[in-house]
Here is the input.
Amino acid sequence: MIGRVPMKTLGIMGGMGAEATIRFCQNIIDIRRPHVKGDSDHLPFILNQNTQIPNCSNAMLGIGPSPSSALVSDAKKLESMGVAFLCIPCHTAHNFIEDVSKAVSIPVIDMVDLALLHVVETMGPSVSVGILASAGTVTSGLYQRRAARIAADLRIVCPTSDSQSEVSDATHGERGVKAGYTDERVRGILTKAAENLTLRGAQVVIAACTEVSIGMPTVPRLLPSSPLAPEAAVPVTKSSQPGSPSNGVHPSVTVLVLDPMRLMAEEALRRCGAHAAAQT
Here is the structure.
C-alpha cells in the first residue's frame, strides 16, 4: 500500500529565500497529496529555515561575505538529526554545493543538474536554454559550467544587461518577490524577460531563481507524458490579444518556463521512497 513503506527523511536547507522555501515544501505536499490517506503517508522532512545566511548573490558579485561556512553548518546540523538527503531550494547557493557535499556523508540533491538533465532528456543535447536568475547566478557562470559538463552543445542564453537589471529588481528589489510582491508589475517584468530570451533563441527558459518560480507562471515538466503535469506542453505565457502586446509581451511569441524547484521536489520524493506518487 502506498505510504506504508517506511520513507526516509529529507533535510531542507531553507531561508534563501524564506517564501521560496515554503513553496518548495508545498510542492512536496502537493505532489504527494493525491496518493495519501492521512498524515503518515506524507514525506517526513526537517526544515532548517535559516534566514540569516549571508546573501548568496551578493557573495558571487563580490559585495558580501561567503555563505559557505553557514551552509556547511546547516548541512551538518541536519545530518546529525538523521536526514537521508539534503535539498537547497536556492539556485545561487548551488555555487557552494561542493563545499556542502564534502562536509557531509549524505547526498545533496542538485537542482541545477536536475533541470539541465531534464532539458537534455526531453529536448535533446543541442538546445538553447534561457535562464532567469539572480545577478549572482548569472555572473558566476553556474549554469554555463554545468551545461558544458552535461552536454557540449547545450547553450545557455542569459538576459541582456538591461533585462537582468529588471529581473533583479522584480526578484530582489524593494517591490520584488523577496519583499513579498507578486503583483502584475512583477509578473510583467519576468514575462517580458522570458519572452526576450525566447526571441534571442532560447527554446525553453529555466526559472533559475526560486523567486522567479513564485513570481511568474511555470511548468513542472516539459512533456505531457508526466502524470503529474499533463498540461506541461502548453506554453505558459503568451499574448492574449494578437497584435496588442500586454505587459511588453510580443503578440506572436510563446514561452515555456521550466520550474526546477518542482523537479527537485519530485526527485526528493523518489529518493526518500515516496516515488510511487510520481508513477501512479
Residues 223-249, 276-280 have pLDDT under 50 and may be disordered.
